[in-house]
Amino acid sequence: MEPLNITKIFRAxxxxxxxxxxxxxxxxxxxQCSNNNSDCAEGVDKAFTKACNHLSVxxxxxxxxxxxxxxxxxxxxxxxGQSFKCEINMDAVKAIQQFLG
Length: 101
Known about the structure:
Elements (H helix, E strand, L loop, with lengths): L5 H8 L2 H19 L9 E2 L1 H9 L3 H13 L3 E6 L2 E6 L1 H11 L1
Antiparallel strand pairs: 1-3, 2-3
């Protein structure tokens, strides 16, 4: 992955739907980690379906937003056939925290 670009990160998060999507994925991953779930490192399973249900937007819109978050380095998407797992890039979260420091 290329070095994190704080401008790309904030540009991606400037869209309200993407910000909500990122927060939802982050919260799900944090919940898995806090419950000592052994799958924590694998990320959030079925994030796409959950996002569609929570944000009430079209599947194509969620797909677009997830790709934008991935392009900004905020998440990693691991595809396996038609399903995928989504994982927060904690280096990006740390970069945001350092910037806001």
